[in-house]
Specification:
CATH class of one domain: Alpha Beta
Low-confidence stretches: none
Radius of gyration: 30 Å
Number of helices: 3
CATH architecture of one domain: 3-Layer(aba) Sandwich
Number of strands: 3
Largest sheet: 3 strands, mixed
Distance between the termini: 61 Å
Strand order of the largest sheet: 1-2-3
Order of helices and strands: EHHEEH
Strand content: 15-25%
Shape: elongated
Length: about 100
């Protein structure tokens, strides 16, 4: 760990950044009091963690990984689909059956 004042940090900024890139933590002080730290940014992995997904499903008791898709899901719609009027009660909230 390296401790540097703000004034010295300004004068030696490129060298401090190189140290931080190598894994060192740079503590920046003002009047001897630490005010900030400089560290390297950790690279993130954006790959999908399939094991974590499997673990989540097991922990939450989910047995089926994907939902059901109707066999006619991508069949063409009937020709009158867009001109058929909606039912009168379409905008009214539906009552859910009590369990």
């Amino acid at each position: 760990m390296t401790i540097v004042s703000i004034k010295n940090g300004k004068d030696h900024f490129p060298q401090l950044v190189r140290k931080a890139e190598k894994g060192d933590t740079i503590t920046i002080t003002r009047n001897g009091t630490p005010v900030a730290e400089m560290t390297a940014i950790k690279k993130r992995s954006y790959a999908i963690d399939w094991d974590a997904g499997e673990r989540y499903l097991r922990e939450h008791g989910i047995k089926r990984k994907k939902g059901w898709i109707a066999p006619d899901f991508d069949d063409p719609l009937p020709e009158d689909f867009l001109i058929t009027p909606l039912p009168e009660d379409f905008d009214e909230p539906k009552q859910r059956p009590k369990k």
